[in-house]
UniProtKB/TrEMBL annotation:
Keywords: GTP-binding, Initiation factor, Nucleotide-binding, Protein biosynthesis. One of the essential components for the initiation of protein synthesis. Protects formylmethionyl-tRNA from spontaneous hydrolysis and promotes its binding to the 30S ribosomal subunits. Also involved in the hydrolysis of GTP during the formation of the 70S ribosomal complex. InterPro entries: EF-G-like_DII (IPR053905), IF2_II (IPR044145), P-loop_NTPase (IPR027417), Small_GTP-bd (IPR005225), T_Tr_GTP-bd_dom (IPR000795), TIF_IF2 (IPR015760), TIF_IF2_dom3 (IPR023115), TIF_IF2_dom3_sf (IPR036925). One of its GO terms (molecular function) is GTPase activity. CDD domains: IF2_eIF5B, IF2_mtIF2_II, mtIF2_IVc. The keyword GTP-binding applies. It comes from Plasmodium cynomolgi (strain B). This is Translation initiation factor IF-2, chloroplastic. Coiled coil: none annotated. The keyword Cell membrane does not apply.
Length: 687
């Protein structure tokens, strides 16, 4: 395939002589593009008309020469007349840099490629060696004739919102697939994003230095996802590459250049700047955002707004952290100059306006709309539908949920909150919330009916319930939902939605409780005294993701929290895996105690019998599953655990049994426990 490094547009009629090319497999430094109305034809050696093709080199004097693979330059030449461009055509003919995004599954080599091409060391800085935020860099090819903007995105499944933003803003996406692992779950997700936004792609097959890698296997697997590569007659380029082989990376850059040549990317520098917020954070300079300019020009001292935030560009730095006065389309820049408490949201667009009053007015209007939509319970955030399914669990950032404020809910309380018990304690303390006692199924039988439960010889059946006949109609109740409150502080605003989404998806449950999470607040920056006070008022656990305790906090803050009776404590993490693990452990603490093993079955005690050997046995009916002799059990009364132990006797009609099943009526004796009553529930567990 021909390799090109430059593009020319000729806007006038051209007379060109076509001559014989000794070698069809040629390389050229330039492409000669001629408008349809300007094409003329010459005569080849076979006297057939031939259309002007690529493979010519244009010189300032108008001569064009063919450059061959063997380095020789053909002596024949031709003349081209080029019209002088007008001012309008000059700006229209300018082309902005291509925005290229790396996407793919976790640990498939995206950041390693990014570091090699950009000559950075981002992977070494990553906690846990996984990418957890978005980054952008401006890259020049070795010849300095081709510049493009490269964006790296995380591969972990939880970072889907960031990957989605990366694809939306790109002109070209590099789908990175490990030659060792092939197509994985997030690879498929990325393919769906590419198709949804109609983005051109290149397939980069990485880790080609490893044994047993197969490009053919990956190419064939891509057919199942309707990705047709050049190897299968399609138009998608496939580039095998390895960071240990510099030539393979050069081929990837050549592929990017070739795809860019077919993209129409006009550069309009005279317009006011606008673009998208990639991320934002707080440092010693105040609120800082990472912007990608998408059209026009952004300049120092420009006034701008983005969502409900606004400001004036006071400092602007490029990808090398150098101060710049302006940035044009496709340039990634760091912007300082936001008003206080005006943190921009990742994914929001920014616009340059004529003065501060306009910027403030528009930002305030957007803020009012956001607050109104929150009060109506509409979708929160910029990712369409990403948190809709969890909306009822979210208390909006920095705001009181209308469900918790009767004034905002017509004087009515949220039924979910009414369900929570009223607990008493010291002022400012929110003790642990316990679940309500559940209802025991009422199983009523015919009056005077004798239960068909037989026990050991010599047993005297005491008076008890006559409701066992409907025991087989028992239906397991849904577990009671218990919530754990979380207060989130993290380093980057783009990570806020990721952490929310991640925590809200988690759920653990047993036969009694289903434990879920609620977010009472989420923001960026270090943890302050006011954060701790606010979290304590909600009995919330503070999650500090890549942040630390503010210097304003007393040195004994950690000791004070551990000594407090409330549930408030701080979890410090810098890797998502660790956060998930610690949060799951907290959730499991909320589950009721149970014996070791896997849940197998449940029975209800109908009668209590006195026996000489064990003292008492329970006449039961099995409602679900199976129960084995000598299995671990827990006995519950009104959804409260009253005993954890073991079955030592299991009989049906005086016959010892090894197992009983759903619908069986049996007698059970428990090790060192006789304080059970009719209506108690028995759960069986097997190790």
């Amino acid at each position: 395939m021909a390799q090109f490094t430059h593009l020319f547009n000729i806007w006038d009629i051209i007379d060109i002589e076509i001559y014989e090319r000794p070698d069809a497999n040629f390389k050229s430094n330039y492409i000669l593009t001629i408008p349809e109305e300007s094409k003329t034809f010459g005569k080849g050696n076979n006297n057939e008309e031939e259309e002007v093709q690529t493979g010519v080199k244009a010189n300032p004097n108008g001569e064009t020469k063919l450059r061959l693979n063997n380095g020789r330059v053909e002596s024949k030449s031709c003349k081209a007349r080029i019209a002088s461009p007008t001012e309008d055509t000059t700006e229209k003919s300018k082309k902005r840099n291509t925005v290229v995004t790396f996407i793919g599954h976790i640990n498939h080599g995206k950041t390693s490629l990014f570091d090699y091409i950009c000559k950075t060391k981002e992977r070494e800085k990553e906690k846990g060696l996984i990418t957890q935020n978005i980054r952008a860099f401006k890259v020049k090819s070795r010849s300095n004739d081709f510049t493009f903007t490269l964006i790296d995105t995380p591969g972990h499944e939880a970072f889907m919102p960031i990957r989605s933003r990366g694809v939306k803003i790109s002109d070209l996406s590099i789908l990175v697939i490990s030659g060792e692992e092939g197509i994985q779950e997030q690879t498929v997700e990325c393919i769906k994003l590419i198709k949804e936004h109609h983005i051109r792609i290149i397939i980069a097959v990485t880790k080609m230095d490893l044994p047993n890698v197969s490009v053919d296997r990956i190419v064939n697997d891509l057919l199942h996802h309707e990705i047709y590569t050049e190897m299968n007659g399609g138009d998608v380029q496939v580039v095998p590459c390895s960071i240990l082989n510099g030539d393979s990376i050069d081929k990837l850059i050549d592929a990017i250049y070739l795809e860019s040549a077919f993209l129409e990317l006009p550069l309009e520098e005279s317009k006011n700047g606008e673009g998208v917020i990639l991320d934002s954070y707080i440092d010693k300079n105040g609120i800082v955002s990472i912007n990608l300019v998408q059209s026009g020009t952004l300049r120092v001292n420009d006034y701008f707004y983005t969502g409900s935030s606004y400001g004036k560009v006071k400092i602007m730095k490029d990808h090398l952290n150098k101060n710049v006065k302006s940035a044009c389309a496709s340039d990634p820049v760091m912007v300082v100059g936001y008003e206080k408490n005006s943190v921009p949201i990742a994914g929001d667009r920014f616009y340059v306006v004529q003065n501060e009053a306009v910027a403030e007015e528009i930002a305030q209007h957007h803020k009012n709309e956001l607050l109104a939509s929150q009060m109506r319970g509409f979708t929160y955030g910029q990712e369409e539908g990403s948190l809709d399914r969890y909306r009822e669990y979210i208390i909006r950032d920095g705001a009181v949920s209308p469900d918790e404020d009767p004034k905002q809910n017509g004087g009515k309380k949220n039924p979910e909150l009414e369900e929570a018990p009223q607990v008493e304690g010291h002022p400012g303390e929110i003790p642990k919330v316990e679940g309500h006692p559940g209802e025991t199924p009422q199983m009523e039988g015919d009056p005077g009916e004798t239960p068909n439960v037989e026990g050991h010889p010599g047993e005297t059946p005491p008076q008890g319930s006559n409701n066992e006949r409907e025991a087989n109609t028992f239906r397991e109740k849904d577990p009671k939902t218990v919530y754990v409150n979380y207060f989130i502080k993290c380093d980057k605003q783009g990570t806020v939605d990721v952490l929310k989404n991640c925590l809200l998806k988690l759920e653990v449950k047993d036969t009694l409780h289903r434990v879920r999470n609620k977010i009472v607040y989420a923001s960026i920056g270090d943890i302050t005294v006011s954060d701790i006070t606010y979290a304590q008022s909600f009995n919330a656990i503070i999650v500090g993701f890549n942040v630390k305790l503010s210097k304003s906090c007393p040195k004994n803050t950690k000791h004070m929290l551990s000594a407090a009776k409330s549930n408030c404590r701080i979890i410090y993490v810098n890797v998502l895996y660790d956060l998930i693990e610690q949060v799951e452990n907290v959730m499991k603490e909320k589950l009721s105690s149970k014996p070791r093993g896997t849940y197998k079955g449940q029975a209800t005690i109908l009668k209590v019998f006195s026996v000489s050997k064990l003292g008492k046995v329970a006449g039961c009916v099995v409602n679900s599953g199976t129960i084995n002799n000598n299995s671990n059990v827990r006995i519950l009364r009104k959804d409260q655990v009253i005993h954890i132990g073991k079955i030592v006797s299991l009989k049906i009609a005086k016959e010892e049994k090894g197992q009983v099943r759903q619908g069986d009526e049996c007698g059970m004796g428990f090790e060192n426990f006789v304080d059970f009553l009719p209506g108690d529930s028995v759960e069986s567990y097997e190790e």
